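step=predict obj=Protein-export membrane protein SecG n=81
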Amino acid sequence: MTALRVVLDIFLVLTSLFLILTILMHKGRGGGMSDMFGGGLSSSFASSGLAERNLNRITIGVAIAWTVTIMLIGIMTRYAS
């Protein structure tokens, strides 16, 4: 059971970092974090509506994986005793 816990913890860290990156890559809407950190970079990615939609889908998928991972870790912690 500890090997599964280690795998879930590593997956949680990776999905957390990837979720942060995908959120920061989104097109800025009136200033904020995306404009503060590389606003010029995000404007080149956001020039296409298709790219923004794909980024939305990726972000939602990563957020779902992150949520499921947290739920699995919580279930394992509850029934580990």
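step=describe
The first helix runs from residue 2 to 24.
step=end
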